[in-house]
Inverse folding.
């Protein structure tokens, strides 16, 4: 993955050989937990209490809510279920900070999270510290059998929190983009430099390949089971589509040419007034983009980002190309043949987000994590500049609705001629 300004400390830890098996596991879990939890607070640190309460649209959430929700996850699924005698920090927090886990109880309406002015940011800090102390004490005193039972839950919770770390940045960027003063989250922030272009295309000959996760490390349930798929023949662009290419699409009337667009996409573009990617603004005849570093001139050499699936598909048609399938993307990425596959922008594929053959959701409330969203969304692959270090894999399946574009989303092309 390309390094970013938001990379936390790596999770692997080295231990002293004289410690017991339980102490090994306890120390490993505590160190991983504190590393991830610390990264969330580091990302929240530049935000004022007022910044943390804003919800700029129903799809986004306040930073304070992200901090509280990820804390509730550990309180609900680890402490509440496995720590005898644990009392929740506050009786209302489960209702306020549950997201979509119906099995875990009722919850506040998603689009009204910005109305929760209380508890304030300082109270959420106290909540996080309370749960952190309780969980580390629990892990430090648990026996090996208990630790082995909770380790998978903790691992899910940490990866879940890393997902929200990315959302904290995309959501606050969307909020700042609505502010006429264009405030910077981090004035020193710079867009990651793309790789040297090299050859334009790579060729994948026809063949049957194993796709999906097939290892011993952590993965989300939607990444498996591994299965065989026919891929190719196809040519895939080695490089991401750039702002210069997108400016040419705009200059050629790409946003106004109905024949390039899916019907729903053209309707969305008209309804929302899309004339350029998200967070782009025309200032004194110059296109600028709202970034984590504030409003900047659009760099023609940088990969385009903040585009929806509809826009990506229309651009591909304009070029006489296609978007790759997620299987094609994975096979090419496994062969280390794609530039900037990770660490700059998520890349739209033309694959519907659906279960792999043989997929089964895990038991209980955590089975709601991925499986119930497997309809009406499209798969993105790779990772973005906001993705925490260590959170990406070649099999990772991100997914959003086709009109979404507030994430760091871009594209690369495929050609079947």
């Amino acid at each position: 993955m390309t390094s970013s300004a938001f990379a936390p400390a790596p999770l692997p830890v080295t231990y002293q050989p004289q410690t017991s098996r339980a102490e090994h596991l306890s120390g490993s879990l505590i160190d991983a937990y504190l590393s991830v939890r610390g990264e969330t607070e580091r990302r929240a640190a530049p935000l004022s209490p007022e910044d943390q309460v804003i919800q700029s649209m129903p799809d986004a959430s306040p930073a304070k809510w992200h901090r509280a929700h990820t804390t509730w996850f550990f309180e609900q699924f680890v402490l509440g279920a496995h720590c005898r005698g644990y009392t929740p920090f506050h009786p209302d927090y489960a209702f306020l900070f549950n997201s979509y886990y119906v099995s875990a109880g009722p919850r506040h309406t998603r689009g009204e999270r910005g109305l929760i002015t209380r508890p304030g940011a300082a109270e959420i800090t106290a909540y996080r510290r309370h749960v952190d102390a309780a969980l580390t004490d629990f892990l430090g005193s648990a026996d090996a059998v208990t630790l082995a039972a909770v380790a998978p839950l903790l691992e899910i919770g940490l990866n879940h929190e890393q997902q929200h770390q990315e959302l904290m940045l995309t959501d606050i960027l969307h909020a700042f983009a609505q502010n006429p003063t264009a405030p910077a989250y981090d004035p020193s922030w710079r867009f990651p430099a793309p790789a040297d272009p090299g050859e334009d295309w790579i060729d994948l000959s026809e063949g049957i390949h194993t796709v999906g996760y097939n290892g011993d490390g952590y993965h989300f349930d939607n990444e498996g089971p591994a299965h065989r798929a026919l891929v190719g023949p196809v040519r895939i662009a080695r490089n991401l589509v750039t702002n210069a290419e997108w400016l040419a699409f705009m200059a050629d009337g790409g946003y106004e040419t109905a024949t390039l667009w899916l019907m729903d996409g053209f309707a969305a573009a008209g309804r929302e007034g899309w004339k350029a990617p998200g967070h782009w603004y025309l200032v004194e005849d110059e296109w600028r983009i709202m970034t984590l570093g504030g409003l900047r001139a659009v760099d023609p050499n940088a990969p385009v980002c903040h585009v929806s699936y509809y826009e990506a598909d229309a651009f591909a048609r304009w070029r006489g190309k296609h978007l790759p399938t997620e299987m094609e993307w994975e096979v090419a990425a496994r062969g280390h043949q794609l530039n900037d596959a990770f660490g700059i922008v998520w890349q739209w594929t033309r694959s519907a987000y659906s279960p792999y053959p043989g997929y089964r959701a895990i038991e209980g409330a955590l089975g709601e994590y991925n499986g119930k969203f497997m309809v009406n969304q499209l798969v993105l692959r790779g990772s973005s500049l906001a993705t925490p270090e260590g959170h990406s894999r070649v099999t990772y399946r991100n997914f959003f609705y086709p009109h979404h574009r507030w994430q760091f989303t871009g594209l690369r092309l495929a050609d079947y001629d």
Summary: The first strand starts at residue 201 and ends at 204.
